[in-house]
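Marked as duplicate of an earlier ticket. Keeping the data here for the record.
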Amino acid sequence: MAHSMMNGLTGPATAEAIMNCVRLMDENKYCYLEIGIYQGCNLSLVASSNPEVECFGVDNFSQKFQEDELTTLTTEQCCQNKIDFFRLNKTKVIKDDFRNFLSSKKLDKQVGVYFFDGPHEFEDQVDGIEVALPYLADEAIVFIDDLRSENVQKSYSFLVEKYKELTPICFTTLPQYGQGQVVLEFKRRQ
């Protein structure tokens, strides 16, 4: 059962880093927001290790990968199964484009930790951060996934140049998965 629950987990170190950051935030004031949840591996791990924190996962569930052929379940069903299995009552899965969700103003808490693993086109990456900025707590942590993608690298460079509130604090690389992340500290300028 554990193997099927973790199918698709490609970055255990990422999930652990996010879990540790979420643990440090005030669960009464802030929430965790993840864009691009795919099968819900990181979302369910973060939420299960921090059961008092409201967690939101947003995905349009359009992404398909080769491992999807191993199951008859959709990525949305795989995600919901993890949420149900761990009984994550404070976790909400939203099937929507991240832009639509964030522009709808349905998020009623500030985001203390934000993980963006959305589409990899330059504009999508920039939008993924820009539309989230108003929701971030005055001091927040932002994770951007798949830093080895050329578009992600370009958008990351553009964003830190444009927004002095974003400061890189850590880079990770996972050569075995061909990925990498950047962790940014966000401090709102008053």
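See parent ticket for discussion. Residues 1-10 have pLDDT under 50 and may be disordered.
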